[in-house]
Specification:
It is built from 2 helices and 11 strands. By secondary structure, the protein is mostly beta strands. It has one domain (22-158): Immunoglobulins (Immunoglobulin-like). The strands form 2 sheets. Strands 1, 2, 4, 5, 8 and 9 form a 6-stranded antiparallel sheet that branches. It has a 5-stranded mixed sheet with strand order 3-11-10-6-7, with no helix packed on it. Strand 1 and strand 2 (42-43) form a beta hairpin.
Length: 161
């Protein structure tokens, strides 16, 4: 029985993942927000309970994955990560990320945390006041050809010590 290391299998999967797919199809840009692990994606359900996670830019936020169509994949994209409560912005961060083409023809973005303004929510005590709040999570992705997709989901924030 032959065994293959994961290191050999990964380049094959990465190189073969976009073959014969429509990841970069000429369709109107769209983005769906959700969560998942590995290459899995589950869209957020309206009002779904979501726990905070540590944000790479500092502070705490909501871990997000995004599934896209009509936005160029396998290249760097510009991102705006926004949170709103009752229509009022509670966090805004600009960053970038790689949108990876999947075998099903969709682009997948992961590793993003949509945070809260650290000046308004400087510590866990301030964030604890948000427990049970309905939060709009917004991700705006713009590719190198200025195609923009905006995704929005309303979730219920769960904060604990």
């Amino acid at each position: 029985m032959r065994m293959f290391s994961g290191a050999l299998a990964v380049p094959f999967l990465v190189l073969g993942a976009c073959k014969d797919t429509s990841c970069d199809a000429d369709v109107p840009p769209e983005i769906t927000l959700g969560q998942g692990a590995s290459s899995a994606f589950e869209p957020f359900e309206d009002g779904q309970d979501i726990a905070l996670t540590i944000a790479p830019q500092g502070g705490m936020g909501i871990s997000v994955r995004a599934l896209t169509r009509g936005v160029t994949t396998d290249n760097l994209i510009d991102l705006q990560l926004i949170t709103e409560i009752d229509g009022e912005q509670t966090g805004f961060f600009e960053t970038n990320g790689i949108l990876t083409c999947q075998e099903d023809g969709y682009g997948l973005l992961w590793g993003q945390v949509v945070g809260f303004n650290p000046e308004e929510f400087p510590d866990v005590d301030a964030l604890l006041a948000l427990d049970g709040e309905q939060v709009d999570v917004i991700v705006i992705a713009t590719d190198e050809q200025d195609r923009t997709a905006e995704g929005r989901a309303t979730v219920t924030l769960r904060v604990s010590r």
